[in-house]
Amino acid sequence: xxxxxxxxxxxxxxxxxxxxxIERAATYGExxxxxxxADELNRRKKDRDPVFSEAERLAIVAALKPVDxxxxxxSLELKRDYILxxxxxxxxMGDDWAGRFDEFQDVCEVLYLPRTPAISTTALIEKIAQA
Length: 131
Ligand code: CTP
Known about the structure:
Elements: E1 4-9, H1 16-26, E2 31-37, H2 39-46, H3 54-62, E3 69-73, H4 79-85, E4 90-94, E5 109-113, H5 121-130
Parallel strand pairs: 1-2, 1-4, 2-3, 4-5
């Protein structure tokens, strides 16, 4: 049986931690769907505008070999709807979210994968600003 994997993120200032997460997520099924968070959602969540627009971030993630489909994540409250809409069998998240999505275990398998150490969009923005 073919399994669909879903994962979510901002994927701003795309870096190797993002790539590794997407590559590993893809190994849990045959089809990988990625929800890329909308600019407006980021403004609310992180209190700053992403460096790259949602259209640019969608284009970058969609171009990756392991990614079959992308969509814009408009609201954190719609996770269950997205899981059902895309027919996801597995939800993969970084372990910075450990335990936070266990409520969806009634509709899909929920996995938390370890983050790549020592890299993040926030750290990169700070490093570049200091350079
Ligand atoms: N991720 C990862 N390893 C990292 C950074 C991110 O595995 N070093 C994963 C996250 O766990 C998530 C996905 O990549 O599943 C998208 O993460 P995102 O929040 O967009 O990136 P961050 O670099 O964590 O961004 P920020 O610093 O703004 O929180």
